[in-house]
Amino acid sequence: MSKIAVYPGSFDPITIGHIDIIQRVSKLYDQVIVLVSDAGDKNYLFNSSERADYVRKCFEGQKNIQVDIHRGLTIDYMRKKNAQVIVRGLRAVADFEYEGTLANMNYRLAPEIETFMVFSRPEYYFISSRGVKELAKNGGELKGLVPDFLISDLEKKLNPKKP
Ligand code: ADP
């Protein structure tokens, strides 16, 4: 049976921190599915197909990394795909509580599925989608935080007056 890990998140937009987690995990599993969430009640900057396209563009040619969009419970998607592991990333202590609650909720719903936490590398520890959007809005330097191809799209959306 092939080992499938699912990395769910908003990825609004994907950052270098997410990319590092995905690359590291892709060495451990036969397949990694980056699952872009489409929660109708969240205020996203990019819609789900834009967010998924950006993720896809980061991993072109890497056959064991796939991208999908999902609305609903991650565990329902996982059961459909026969995936065994949920991957999440951990940065600061602040992530710990949220991620612990989520992992235990998922354990309660689907005890056969394991949550696998991956620590951020120190150089990516401070990177978040929210921080990146805040920087873009205020004209901060985005290089090294998101893939280069995303920089102008972010600036166009959030800071259209920037020369
Ligand atoms: P969500 O909306 O589910 O929090 P995100 O796209 O913000 O989705 O993040 C998805 C996962 O990636 C979360 O587990 C988050 O903690 C983790 N993550 C985000 N940024 C980083 C980073 N720089 N390093 C490691 N993990 C990260």
What features would you describe in this structure?
The protein is an alpha/beta fold and 163 residues long. The protein has one domain (4-125): Rossmann fold, CATH 3.40.50. Helices cover 41% and strands 19% of the residues. The chain is built from six helices and five strands, in the order E-H-E-H-E-H-E-H-E-H-H. The protein has helices at residues 16-26, 48-58, 74-81, 93-109, 129-137, 148-158; strands spanning 4-9, 31-37, 65-70, 85-90, 114-119. Strands 3-2-1-4-5 form a five-stranded parallel sheet, with helices on both faces. It starts with a strand and ends in a 5-residue tail after the last helix. Bound molecules: adenosine-5'-diphosphate (ADP).
Key descriptive features of the protein:
alpha/beta; globular; binds adenosine-5'-diphosphate; 163 residues; Rossmann fold; five-stranded parallel sheet; 6 helices
Briefly, what is this?
By secondary structure, this protein is α/β, with parallel strands linked by helices. It has one domain: Rossmann fold (3-Layer(aba) Sandwich).
Number of strands: 5
Name the beta content range: 15-25%
Terminal CA distance reads 53 Å
Give the CATH class.
Answer: Alpha Beta
CATH topology tier name: Rossmann fold
* Domains (count): 1
Bound molecules: adenosine-5'-diphosphate
Roughly how much helix do the residues carry, as a percent range?
40-55%
Order of helices and strands: EHEHEHEHEHH
| Helix count, DSSP H or I runs of 4 or more residues | 6
Outline, from the CA principal axes?
globular
The CATH homologous superfamily is termed HUPs
The largest beta-sheet arranges its strands as: 3-2-1-4-5
Mean pLDDT over all positions = 96
Question: What is Rg?
Answer: 16 Å
